[in-house]
């Protein structure tokens, strides 16, 4: 995987779709949580999701239970399933064939969820929504597409509604991942610049430490593969052991360590993740 500090070379939509249609060598569920390349146990993804919900629980609680929620780029349907337990109506949109199938199977028992095939930039269901969720979608879109999408969504928000993004980030600048897996990793400041380009939203930001916990485990697996090559590269036993050790030392490994490293301006793990809540500024809300 190559990284460049520029987005002059753009994301290729066909390559992104091809990767997720093939599930990147894992199942739709593990790829949707990016937990497929390091042999981590299912409990790692469950831990991450549980902690992510807690991180933004007040944002989610601010949406009325009778609300209508749109999940754009819903992946394997994990968040759509969560939203279905909290809100009256949930609609997911997904363009990857494999993810679409997995999402529909996941929510098949839930009568208040519908999953549609489509590209969120051009194919959205009718009506307005109390919350629109983009769970790791913008990192697969070029800057112009992000601005255009967010600009178009302001007319789809109900009064008092919000857009919540969850995006993988880096500390500074922009980095483009190329090859079979393509993504744009932007800093929080870069995302703020994109939001300003819409001239529409007030923005709140929260660090997603649950993501950091999972990436810490992935980085340790990478170190083991590099420095202990005599051990098997792919091993569910070793992956599970790595996660169990980190969980057993969670007050240090998952809480203290990332905060200390952040204070020391040490960029490890390299990738971070942030939640962004966008709400219409009063002038735009009034016009809407």
Question: Overview of this structure, please?
Answer:
This protein has 288 residues and is α/β, with parallel strands linked by helices. The protein has two domains: 2-209 and 271-282, Vaccinia Virus protein VP39 (Rossmann fold, 3-Layer(aba) Sandwich); 212-263. The protein has twelve helices and ten strands. A seven-stranded mixed beta sheet has the order 4-3-2-5-6-10-9, with helices on both faces. Helix 7 packs across helix 8 (188-198) and helix 9 packs across helix 10. The longest helix is centred in the last third of the chain and has 19 residues, at 209-227. The model is unreliable at 1-7 (pLDDT under 50).
- Total of domains: 2
Q: Which oligomeric state applies?
A: single chain
Stated plainly, the CATH topology of the largest domain is called Rossmann fold
Strand element count: 10
Mean pLDDT: 90
Name of the CATH architecture of the largest domain: 3-Layer(aba) Sandwich
Which class of the largest domain in CATH terms?
A: Alpha Beta
Instruction: Indicate the proportion of strand residues.
Output: 15-25%
Shape: globular
Q: What are the secondary-structure elements, in order, as H or E?
A: EHHHHEHEHEEHEEEHEHHHEH
Radius of gyration: 19 Å
């Amino acid at each position: 995987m190559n990284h460049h500090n520029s987005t002059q070379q753009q994301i290729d939509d066909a390559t992104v779709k091809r990767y997720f249609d093939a599930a990147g060598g894992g199942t739709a569920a593990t790829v949707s949580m990016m937990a497929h390349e390091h042999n981590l146990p299912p409990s790692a993804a469950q831990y991450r999701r549980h902690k992510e919900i807690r991180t933004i629980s007040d944002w989610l609680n601010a949406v009325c239970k009778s609300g209508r929620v749109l999940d754009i780029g819903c992946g394997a349907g994990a968040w759509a399933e969560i939203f279905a337990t909290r809100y009256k109506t949930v609609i997911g949109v997904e363009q990857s064939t494999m993810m679409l199938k997995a999402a529909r199977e996941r929510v098949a028992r839930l009568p208040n969820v519908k999953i549609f095939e489509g590209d969120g930039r051009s194919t959205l269901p009718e009506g307005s929504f109390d919350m629109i969720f983009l769970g790791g979608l913008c990192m697969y879109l070029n800057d112009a597409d992000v601005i255009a999408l967010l600009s178009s969504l302001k007319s789809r928000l109900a009064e008092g509604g919000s857009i919540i993004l969850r995006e993988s980030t880096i500390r500074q600048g922009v980095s483009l991942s190329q090859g079979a897996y393509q993504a744009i990793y932007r800093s929080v400041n870069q995302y703020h610049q994109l939001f300003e380009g819409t001239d529409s939203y007030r923005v709140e930001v929260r660090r997603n430490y649950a993501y950091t916990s999972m990436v810490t485990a992935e980085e340790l697996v990478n170190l083991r593969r590099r420095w202990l090559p005599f051990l098997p590269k792919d091993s569910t036993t070793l992956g599970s052991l790595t996660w169990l050790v980190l969980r057993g030392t969670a007050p240090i490994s998952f809480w203290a360590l990332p905060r200390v490293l952040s204070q020391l301006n040490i960029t490890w793990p390299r990738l971070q993740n942030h939640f962004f809540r966008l709400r219409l500024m009063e002038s735009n809300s009034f016009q809407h």
